[in-house]
Amino acid sequence: MSEAKTTSVADLPKVELHLHLDCSMSFEAVAALVPGMTRERYRSEFLAPKKCANLVDYFRYLAAPLAFLQTGYALRVATMDLMRQLAEDNVIYAEIRFAPHLHQREGLRSDEVVEIVLAALDEGKTLYPIEARLILCTLRPDDTAQGFDILALAEKYAARGVGGIDLAGDEAGYGLAEHIPVFRRAADRGVNVTAHAGEAAGAESVAEVVAKLGVRRIGHGVRSIEDPAVIDLLLEHGVHLEVCPSCNIQIDVFRTYADHPVDRLRKSGIPLSINTDARGPTDLTLRQEYQRLDAVFGWTTREFVAANLNAINASFLAESLRTKFSNALIEFVSASETTP
Ligand SMILES: [Zn+2]
């Protein structure tokens, strides 16, 4: 692997569809909010070990940021911090997700939480050349009423920058029953949807969200590789997978990077994108993830551009903006190919 090749793939303009606001705080942002924070304390409380026992074990490291992401000021700092990280990563478009009801411990209403993050996003857009949308999460094991509240917020703030809703949380511990009415209503109202599946649970969980939630975009979905029938199902419905390799390895879904099925999924023809999921606990940039894919699977500009075009195509952007970002990416690549 030549240095020039590494630099070129890592420096590509990037699109990121799957990253969590509350799981993406840098040391600088935490230090701005928590008096006396040291790098050692950040490392032990905010960064998960390189190997966790499973997803629920990893969730323990989300408690620390959530403890103080309960005020307008803290939410603004976290959002602006993430926009800065995205700019440094050369991300041109991002969909940032979070669960508003996890930020209400000190009295904020869920609509206030969304408005605060939207305002910070707008502020970030004036400082950095990034377009962004929010995705609002309902969680396993939230109930149906909670999901309806999230859906109503997504509709209320669609014009302000909320792109859709997501189902996140403990996939292996809870089923879908409470969420089916929410996703049905989302379909009726034309609200965009995605759902986490096929990470902590197997291929059957992927088939379940396609059949019961009607999603055409899935967070992870990587354990589809366990069942050729599920791969066929994804191909048949044109389902996009938001793949986050390093996170999957950290929660021990796969032992090593070389064991990860991302390249086999790509070769099967499933449209997929590459994402960080959690820049905080996983201590990761998208640039580093690209370098790992280059080093382990030999991905070149061709594979990364394809993944980014897939991401734009599966994004919750309006058609005109999808065209704009696709053209920007294609123009960047053609310009760099003609530069000596
Ligand atoms: Zn996620």
UniProtKB/TrEMBL annotation:
Q: Which residues form the signal peptide?
A: none
Enzyme class (EC, first level):
hydrolase
Q: Which cofactor does it need?
A: Zn(2+)
GO CC terms: cytosol
Does Hydrolase show up as a keyword for this record? yes
Coiled-coil intervals: none
Q: Which GO terms describe its molecular function?
A: adenosine deaminase activity; metal ion binding
Family, per entry: Belongs to the metallo-dependent hydrolases superfamily. Adenosine and AMP deaminases family.
**By what name is this protein known?**
adenosine deaminase
Q: Which organism is it from?
A: Devosia equisanguinis
